[in-house]
Amino acid sequence: MIAPWPTTRPAQIPPQRGDSDDAMAAGTTVDHLTETYRAHYRSLLGLAALLLDDTASCEDVVQEAFIRVHSARGRVRDPEKTLAYLRQTVVNLSRSALRRRILGLKLLSKPMPDMASAEEGAYDLLERDQLIQAMRGLQRRQREVLVLRYFADMTEAQVAETLGISLGSVKAYGSRGIAALRVAMEAPA
């Protein structure tokens, strides 16, 4: 009895090392790939340089592209498209390198800020308390101008508009207030 005609195609068997003539017909040759790589190395490096920022990474990407296309040369059916495969591989590897860099930057642990010692913290509290006491000793307008100018981060014009006084008055109150704070802060407590 004759076996029925198979309805599915048999799996393709990849060429073995001994089948060099069949392999050459199925893809580009090692010599052609190597010559293409040598002839277009600088242009491939320039392509990578447009996508990446340092020379070492560009060289790594171009070399990795050659290795990848070399290992997959059996899939390059038309030897004329070898350069296109190399270029596309350089672009893809450059994209991957950039993605890894961006991800690395995002995942970098941010260093902890230097922590103040307990003594420094206590000193800062004392200094802040001294500043608050000195601010309470200022005239009302001087205190308002300094608080709006330096703690609310307003410009002199914004302070003048907020308080309904002239720009010159803001400058005068601010100058006198700072002078009074210097005296109060330098005085022994």
Automatic annotation (TrEMBL):
Coiled coil, from the record: none
SUPFAM superfamilies with a match to the protein in the record: Sigma2 domain of RNA polymerase sigma factors (SSF88946), Sigma3 and sigma4 domains of RNA polymerase sigma factors (SSF88659)
Residue ranges of the region described as Disordered: 1-24
Residue stretches making up the RNA polymerase sigma-70 region domain: 37-101
One record GO biological process: DNA-templated transcription initiation
Keyword Transcription regulation part of the UniProt annotation: yes
Gene3D superfamilies: 1.10.1740.10, Winged helix-like DNA-binding domain superfamily/Winged helix DNA-binding domain
RNA polymerase sigma factor 70 region 4 type domain ranges (all copies): 129-181
Database matches in Pfam families: Sigma70_r2, Sigma70_r4_2
Keyword Aminoacyl-tRNA synthetase attached: no
Keywords: DNA-binding, Sigma factor, Transcription, Transcription regulation
UniProt xrefs under InterPro entries: RNA_pol_sigma-70-like (IPR039425), RNA_pol_sigma-70_dom (IPR014284), RNA_pol_sigma-E_actinobac (IPR014325), RNA_pol_sigma70_r2 (IPR007627), RNA_pol_sigma70_r4_t2 (IPR013249), RNA_pol_sigma_r2 (IPR013325), RNA_pol_sigma_r3/r4-like (IPR013324), WH-like_DNA-bd_sf (IPR036388)
GO terms, molecular function: DNA binding; sigma factor activity
Family statement drawn from the similarity comment of this UniProt entry: Belongs to the sigma-70 factor family. ECF subfamily.
Protein's name according to its UniProt entry: SigE family RNA polymerase sigma factor
Source organism of the structure: Streptomyces sioyaensis
